[in-house]
């Protein structure tokens, strides 16, 4: 006869298996059962909620993703600056760029680099900063943020695209066009969506 406790804990491992299989609906089902049927330490609950948040995001359920990610952060043993960046992205997708900016700014104000306090800031921080500023219509500041990120990681394709978008809004068409060309030289074309191609086409940049 199967041990009931072991059977209940199987829901937790099944959640991770479902995530690997990109079956996000099953991720949520198994994650809920894992949380409901087990008395888990806070650190493990934090992981389960983080996976739930990722699944909600992949299902475009951004409000639910925010809720799950906030629970994950609250239960975490120690602050995770990258979790704040993930939550910032979820808030942007949920239509709240102001909150998204606050989360990135919190990391900056408290010296919380991606690898922890005092570790310095790299592309992820500046990229999320730029995205939030872009959504708020602060295009000059956004371009500066993307530039700061590119100083640290000059081969990150998407920062060229997003900086190009910011330049375009500022009327700097030549700079935008140059960034779009750099973007195309670096990006894996399988990740290009029609909206990206359309934006490039606006400035006469075609996808090879």
What is the number of strand segments?
2
Low-confidence stretches: none
How many helices? The count is 11
**Residues in helix, %:** over 70%
What is the highest CATH level, the class of the domain at 1-77?
Mainly Alpha
Structural class: mainly alpha
**So what's the overall shape?**
globular
Mean pLDDT, to the nearest integer, reads: 93
Briefly note the CATH topology name of the domain at 1-77. Answer: Serine Threonine Protein Phosphatase 5, Tetratricopeptide repeat
Biggest sheet, strands in spatial order? 1-2
| CATH hierarchy: architecture of the domain at 1-77 | Alpha Horseshoe
Strand content: under 5%
Integer-rounded radius of gyration: 20 Å
The biggest sheet amounts to:
2 strands, antiparallel
Short description:
The longest helix has 17 residues, at 4-20. It contains eleven helices and two strands, in the order ααααααββααααα. With 208 residues, it is mainly α.
């Amino acid at each position: 006869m199967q041990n009931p406790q072991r059977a209940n804990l199987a829901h937790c491992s099944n959640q991770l298996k479902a995530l690997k299989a990109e079956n996000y609906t099953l991720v949520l089902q198994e994650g809920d059962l894992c949380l409901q049927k087990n008395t888990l330490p806070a650190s493990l609950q934090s992981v389960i909620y983080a996976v739930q948040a990722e699944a909600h995001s992949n299902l475009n359920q951004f409000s639910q993703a925010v809720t799950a990610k906030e629970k994950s952060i609250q239960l975490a043993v120690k602050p995770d600056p990258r979790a704040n960046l993930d939550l910032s992205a979820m808030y942007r997708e949920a239509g709240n760029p102001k909150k998204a900016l606050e989360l990135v700014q919190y990391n900056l104000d408290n010296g919380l680099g991606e690898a922890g306090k005092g570790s310095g800031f790299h592309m992820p921080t500046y990229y999320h900063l730029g995205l939030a500023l872009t959504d708020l219509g602060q295009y000059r500041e956004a371009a500066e943020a993307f530039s700061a990120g590119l100083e640290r990681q000059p081969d990150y394709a998407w920062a060229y695209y997003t900086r190009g978008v910011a330049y375009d809004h500022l009327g700097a068409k030549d700079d935008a066009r140059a960034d779009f060309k750099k973007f195309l030289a670096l990006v894996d074309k399988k990740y290009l969506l029609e909206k990206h191609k359309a934006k490039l086409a606006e400035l006469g940049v075609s996808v090879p």
